[in-house]
Amino acid sequence: MSFNKNYFFFLFILILISCSGEKAAKRIPIENFFSVPIKNNYLVSPDGKFISYLKPDNNRIHIYVETWDGKNTTQLTCDTNRSISGYFWANNQEIVYLKDGSEEKDPSLFAVRFDGTNKRELVTFKNTKIKLITTGQVHDDHVLLALNKRDSTVFDAYRLNIQTGQLSLLLKNPGNITKWFSDPAGKLRMAVASDGVNETILYRDSENQKFRAVLTNNFKTSVLPVAFSADNSCIYALSNQNRDRMALVELDCITGSEHRIIYSNPEVDVTDATYSVKKGKLVFADFETWKKDRHYLDDTVKNIFKQLDKLLPNTEIRVGSSDFDEKKFIIRSYTDRNPGSFYLYTPDDNKLVKLSDVNATLDVDELAEMKPVSFIARDGLLVNGYLTLPKGSKKKKLPVVVIPHGGPDSRNSWGYNSEVQFLANRGYAVFQVNFRGSKGYGKKFWIAGFKEWGGKMQDDITDGVRWLISEGLADPKRIAIYGSGFGGFSALHGLFTRPDLYKCGASYSGFTNLFAYLKDIPPYFRPYLQMYYETVGNPETDADYFRAISPVFQTDKIKSPVLIAQGTRDPRVNMNETNQFVKELRKRNVPVTYLLKDGEGQIFRNSGNRLELYKELEIFLAKNLGR
Description:
By secondary structure, the chain is an alpha+beta fold.
């Protein structure tokens, strides 16, 4: 990648110059960073009379509805065992919502009136996952669902009547369908099939017809449907077919041929697009260089964002609507130092009314700026990332916490991050690397990470840290590595392969054994198994490689202190494997801090457990990096 190399270098110099006169930040209580937001996930009822939102109560997340003036509020849910994981307005009177599963119960879909009456359970089956095909769309009281109740490895398509609870099977999954898509009228018209390596888009003109294959690609080439056109003659999709970077294109529904490129960015992937059903057109495309940005396809929408930029200068803005012709929408603002606020916006009079702050306990003036940086890896590849320097520090020979992102096929993004700000407030420079294999930088950059979990992906992280040292920013004797998921794996991998580089490491739900990682994948991920073999490796043919890079087999090489945090219900990391890993480390007298939390999954949902994790992390880093 060649974009913004000089720009990043110039920005980096500005960091050193502009921050030299800062006062040291005040120490912010740890609770202020990791408290649950008071209100979030705001929605406006279709008629604009009510506002709904999620709010915690008794360590669970519930739905509330209030009149737009805030004078009358109703709590719609009150389950003490389960939180709300998602919801939407079905019509002017009713809300449909999904409850998380618990140790005793499976996920369930419910409906309730806006005043809390007529609450009813619509769907719940034992050991069954629920996916909404038509999220937020109800047609003649019906929604489309995908359920794996018949076979845990595949999702069949159903139509549900939210008034009667009648559930009708639309199509039985033959075993290879990985995604279902509906048209604007709520009809099941498209699907994606996979044989584990190749993906095929299937299409039909109506629900009375059979699906037929339209387009087949190897999984390395992505064609991701976004929406049907207003007349259903074509689909809009994100595609990197015959190109390196994802572009927004128009495809023929019958032949699969590409009619035209609607928008492409010369530097990075197009990451998303927004289609307005009411306008019957695409309104903008999203892309991300060092910040998220938009390419507008509708002048009215462009003008709305221009007005919002004037009302909320120097902030990132997200609009909770895809149609942009309602009388009111919800606006979310944020920056790198501010988790942001929610507003009610009326475009007719260009008026904003603040609804709530995401986290009002934080003083943004005490938080640190997140800056883009780039460096050249050992093989000449340009790698991008972010560096957050503690406010008021001397900017030389700082203790550093390296945070590899999870996935690994995701990426770090500019914006507010509680972990980053917490660590920066404690005096650490925080370094985030978008190593090869990260998404958003094109197909070649992503594929460059295939079968490199223990190779070049880790080299990119190492090269970034050595670049920090060479620039005089990092104290080579005070560097820690911490991450979750793949990031946790990277932290543990760094401890046994670069013991000279890292003083300590912390893994939060990190993978310890790649054999177990692939063996224990959830059943509904099985259709992708061949793809995993190509991207991660095959445990049979690549057994020596798996053993060499799996931390559980390399405990004799780990000497530095380790912090491990895991939940007993983590679906991707076997608790017994982690227990054995910790046992082996302790047998070798390696200092280990181990937090095993009953009932938690990959992410600690319980606020008390989450707070304990970061308190232990603070103690662990201070002890080993001398803060």
